[in-house]
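Researcher: Let's walk through a ligand-bound prediction step by step. First, I give you the protein sequence. Second, the SMILES string for zinc ion. Third, you return the three-dimensional complex as structure tokens. Ready?
Model: Ready.
Researcher: Here are steps one and two:
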Amino acid sequence: MPSSTFTALSPESQGSPFWNRLTETMPRAKLDALHLQRVQALTHYAYEHSAFYRRKFDDAGIKPSDIRSLDDFKRKVPITDKSEFISLQQQRPPYGDTIALPLDFVAHHCETSGTTGVPLAIPYSMYDSVRYGESWVYGFWGLGIRPTDTFYFAFGWGNFAGFWSAYWGARRLGARVISGGGLDTKGHIEAILRMKPTVLISTPTFALRIAAVAAEMGIDLSKSSIKFTYHAGEPGPTALPGMREQIEKAWGAKAGELLGIAEVDAMAPGCPLGDGVHVNEMNVFSWSMDPESMQEVPDGEIGENIVTGYGNTAQPLLNYRTHDLVRRRSSCACGRTWSKLEGAVLGRTDFMVTVRGTNVYQTAVENILTEVEGVSMHYELVLTHEEGNDCMRVRFEPEPTVDPSRWKSVAADAQARIHKALHVRLDVVAVEPRSLPRFELKTKRIIDQRPKELRRALDR
Ligand SMILES: [Zn+2]
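Model: Step three, the predicted complex:
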């Protein structure tokens, strides 16, 4: 195939399931030796260039030269949290004294979506943005996307880091990019039919919404040019297999996703096997911590993902709390040696709920909902605290095709399945179709109505 883009790629890499076989299949001992060199260099860099880190290290009574092993790094380098960065940024906008580079070196500014309160300002150097983009390419390549593909971004270009970095990734891959910009859903559909892109980039729920609106217009997008859909921004096909099925059916495409953290990296591209994501260990060092005792938890157990980014030269992040609960595995049948997070993110520490002694994880409930016939993708989980106990109530919109006389039985079916799988009884109620809010970016699934002092929220 005569393609100028392909001339840079060897025949081996064109057919390979790996974007970079060397890095993706590196033996653990080698990876850890590399991590040690990198965290040591980063510790020196942060201490010397960021007033924030110098203060943290001095307060903890440690020097960068004290870090002689990865265990030293995990135990001695102070844990950092989003709330610290936000409060310093508010004192002295835009970045406080967390920044480690002169402002001239900041090539791009983004912000978190602010779903948990005040948004975090995120500066990227050019180097940071290139590394960040490459994380996406690992995921694109693993799914089968190639430089001959054309990306369509169903995304209004605000300050959300997620899809800006996907754009950096598409550029790195060498593919063509089409922006849907500020079009409405109908406009996106028309643009896709006219321009014939092969890859859709959007949040997973927005992909379903586009398909639903198309169906109302009498258009079947499973017959469109789209061959792949790729997602980020909220729990998607990895955590929710039922959602993967819906997206793949609606678009006649293969669905992939990655777990990104705006201020860190597109840090964990989806495993091609579909049941987890792999931490990009070229860009991120990570380990799991018990959020209560702050001690490391072993592979296989659920803990909070603590990350250190190698591509955050502008605003370094060392032992940074993600508040994401994950289960880590050290091997995978796909051949990648990078740590695997099974089912991506299982829940959030700030929305951790214990109902009658049972820990209830958000994605576990969502997963069951996507499998119940008659429950649409529009639902929310309402957290309350009654008589000393956390409670979770599920409010869902039935599919429009379900007769109102059957709503109660759909709710009862969902409640029974949740009870069977999670051994906990939750209130499940149907609400009027189209009564819950719609989102283009992150869908707000959790409504936390617990008293403020009981929430483990980030903006605490
Ligand atoms: Zn894998």
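Researcher: And what stands out?
Model: Residues 1-7 have pLDDT under 50 and may be disordered. The longest helix spans residues 28-49.
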